[in-house]
Amino acid sequence: MTWSDFASMIAAVSFAILVVAACYPLYQLGRTFKKTADSVNSIGTEVAKTVTSANETVKSANAHLARLDTVTDSAVNVAQDVSALTTLVSATVGSPLIKLNAFSQSTRAFFAGKVKRKEFSTDYNGRISHLRSTLIDLEKTKG
């Protein structure tokens, strides 16, 4: 056996030892990759369940919002109806009450002698403009 044969034999044995020594870390690395793949699969399954649950929740929330839109539309309609009714009542009842109050104030002031008698005139709607001037005179006498 020559020196070159002996050197090649040492190199072959060294390479075999190196391959055997590298097998264990490669085996451990393979197990790590398998566990990582299992974890990723498990996470994927859990994420799919979570996404499905979130999708159902969003659908339920949209259904509730649709019902809430109906309720708010009804509330807006009721508010508009109440506003119109309030305007109608104030125009129907309020104006005669204001006129009655002005008339009673002017009558009370007239009989109390605080207001001088003035000529009555009517404006284009047939309303007595004297009431306004009487109220102005009453304000002046109070102040």
What report would you give on this structure?
With 143 residues, the chain is mainly alpha-helical. The protein has one domain. Helices cover 86% and strands 0% of the residues. The chain contains two helices and no strands. The mean pLDDT is 81.
Topology readout:
Blueprint: H1 3-112, H2 130-142
> Main sheet?
none
State the distance separating the first and last CA atoms.
139 Å
Detail the poorly predicted runs. none
| CA-based gyration radius | 50 Å
Descriptive keywords:
86% helix; rod-shaped
Question: Could you write a compact summary of the structure shown?
Answer:
The protein has 143 residues and is mostly helical.
